[in-house]
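Supplementary Methods, section 5.1.

A reviewer requested that the exact input to the structure prediction be made available. We therefore reproduce it here, unchanged from the version used in the analyses.
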Amino acid sequence: MVMTGRAGRTGSYNEESSIAQWSDGRVAVVIGVASALVAIAGSWIPSLWGDEAASIMSARRDWGSLWALLGTVDAVHGLYYVVLHVWIELVGASPFAVRVPSGIAVGAASAGLYLLVRRRAPREPAVIAAAVFAVLPRVTFLATEARSLALATAAAVWLTLLLLRLLDARMHRGWWWGYALGLALAVHLFLFLALLIPVHAVVVLLDRGSGRRRGIRIRPFLLAWAGAALLIAPIGVLALTQRHQIAFRKPYRTVTAEGVLVDQWFMLEALALIAWAFIIVAVAVVVHRREDAWHGNRQLLLLGGAWIVVPTATLMLVAAVVSLGYTPRYLAFCAPAAAIVIAIAVAALPRRWMRAVSVGVIAGLAIPVYLDQRTPYWKNGGTDWQAVAEVVSIHSRPGDGIVFDESVRPSRRPRLAMHTYPNGFDGLVDLGLVRPYDETDGLWDVATPLAEVSHRLEGIDLVVVVSRSADGVDADIATLRREGFDLREIVRLESSVVLIYERALQPPMT
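The structure derived from this sequence is encoded token-by-token as follows.
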């Protein structure tokens, strides 16, 4: 069985219509642009949340402050923070601006996935794979996140495409160096992309032992993986020294069937049921079909299967034995593999209308999730910091004081609204602030209860209190009352409460 390069160039596939005359590069550009537009549309609507606040605040630091931070926490996100720092310097830090790179990355991943599948199959399954990938709820979720996962997913796709090119032909030594360096940079972008190395190893080793492909030289791959491992080692050591940062997640992030089968890529039970049915059909069809024409599909199934199974099984094992919680979204970079295997099954249907309906059903099931993801309070159980900023702006003026609930965990503290939507807090006095975040080697501001700094209330007649928990600001409110402030107004939002306290009028002199 012969491994062909770009099957479509041999003329063995009958591709009709004028679009069939387009080059694969042109088709990939169209797919990439369309996918990016779908991904970016409405991405600015959901309120920013804790992880994104960490991204924005870290990226806003000066270089010295950022290096100090990465020496203590979040080293695994360091490369992304550097990229975002430069990006913010150019375009600003609005929700739209900081999320655009993720939307562009989704487009790049879709284009790369088309080219990847095209190396082993006709154009139709390549288009199907790219289309399915672009509408998967986990992928459309990535586009609304100012985090590194969308960029990491794009890197995974393009590195895997490069792997296939290295398998198919002798290439200049520079491509091998590029492959090794790309793997290392991808892991610095998102640590779990280190799992691409065993995925690629499985593909190379099994492909090397198949039929007429026994002539593949494995030594260059081994050298490339070894070189990548050496470049990855520093970030691996830093991750181990900073593992306490995410150890708290374990009680809340246990492995479940729903997490693995639904939340990783599909995020909706009905869609997951259909998707897994297609995946099972793909396995059955490829195993049953033995013709040489299906050799490319067998290669794609091998690639997709390894890409799905190896990272998922590894993270499940890690979650079981060490203090690192399993989080379904960390496997988002395997979504292209799910799309590849689904595309194999859809493309095997005997009628074009069946294939079109199948893709339409997948997209139709995904649309409600897509629309829900682009509502104001969708993030993390109803983050409402944008609304908090608007309310604070309406009810205060420069020189007024503000107090935040510090009782909840740092990534949910309402004071992050001030860092993600700063225009709503212009000129306000942060009464509890001890040290701003960019003067520390940690992620967050250092604050103290109002009772410890009650002297800061001198000369202030109005104080805005923003609370997340029911009793998180009781002590601060008690201090305000002792200092002569009365409650003037309460505004209840999706997950926060804004209370307006005003200094009571002094009684007239007698």
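Confidence is low (pLDDT under 50) at residues 1-16, 248-252. These observations are discussed further in the main text.
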